[in-house]
Design brief:
Length: 284
């Protein structure tokens, strides 16, 4: 199979799934308010053959008093998950959810972080599949486990200290993917402190999508992020959100638009506010 594009539409995925060597499909449905909802939704209906990645147990590690809400998984745990769903080094992967890609992009990023470059995102997610294909499977999918290994730490990340120093020295452009109300500190429905990291610019991840929940044209995405970067380069951009999940949406958008090399602040806001000595800003 030839190299997959980063973004694939439902009819193209359907054609690939009918081939002798189909891509691996991973369902990433999730809900921050109900940790069991994602698996329940997958069991209720998913793309035929798709395995499920649980945001809390597969795409994240155990939360501690120092981390954000969704720290990176232990590499061996993530390797075991990939082996359990049947990934092999040469097999492409397509990830999707029913939330505009907000959760699937975390799986996409982790695959790249683990050295698996053949990873794509289904444009429009499960709703696009229902609209164009309308063929679902219910219950548990049968999988053929592999001995997948992979090599972690293949994508750039920054920690809180590196971020704070980089911002103080004006070496980084911090991009916050949360909605404007949370960014300004007017409301905070999840974390204990409202506001944002001083120096951050707010580019809500939802604005990467059109009214139908599809990704905007690559030229539009490129213009959006190019306008936010100066005087910094793409490789100096760092993405954050509440816990390092939807931040990957903006990181994906930049990569898709040809703006390569940006980093993820995995801990994001929920980690930053663990230390009361770290600065917090409110308003624009």
């Amino acid at each position: 199979m030839k190299q997959l594009p980063m973004l694939i539409d439902a009819p193209s995925l359907d054609r690939l799934l009918r081939q002798d060597s189909p891509p691996l499909v991973i369902d990433c449905q999730a809900a921050l308010s109900d940790h069991a909802a994602g698996r329940k939704a997958w069991l209720a209906g998913h793309i035929p053959g798709a395995g499920h990645a649980d945001l809390e147990s597969d795409l994240s590690g155990a939360k501690t008093a120092e981390t954000g809400r969704h720290p990176l998984p232990i590499p061996e745990d993530f390797r075991r998950f990939l082996a359990d769903v049947g990934l092999t080094p040469e097999r492409p992967v397509v990830v999707y959810d029913d939330s505009g890609g907000a959760f699937a992009v975390r799986c996409w990023w982790l695959l790249r972080w683990f050295g698996h470059g053949q990873a794509a995102l289904l444009d429009g997610g499960l709703s696009a599949w229902r609209e164009h294909i309308d063929r679902l499977e219910t219950g548990q999918s049968e999988t053929d486990p592999s001995d997948y290994t992979g090599t972690p730490n293949q994508m750039p990340v920054v920690n809180a200290d590196e971020l704070q120093q980089g911002l103080e020295q004006d070496r980084l452009r911090l991009i916050d993917a949360r909605g404007p109300v949370r960014f300004r500190g007017e409301e905070e429905p999840i974390d204990a402190v409202a506001g944002h990291i001083p120096g951050a610019v707010n580019l809500p991840f939802a604005d990467n999508l059109d009214e139908q929940g599809r990704w905007k044209p690559v030229e539009t995405l490129r213009e959006r992020f190019v306008a936010a970067l100066p005087p910094h380069e793409a490789g100096q951009a760092v993405h954050m959100c509440g816990s390092g999940v939807s931040a990957c949406h903006n990181l994906f958008a930049m990569e898709y638009a040809g703006l390569k090399g940006s980093a993820l602040y995995v801990g994001s806001w929920s980690e930053w506010i663990r230390d009361p000595s770290r600065p917090v800003a409110r308003g624009e």
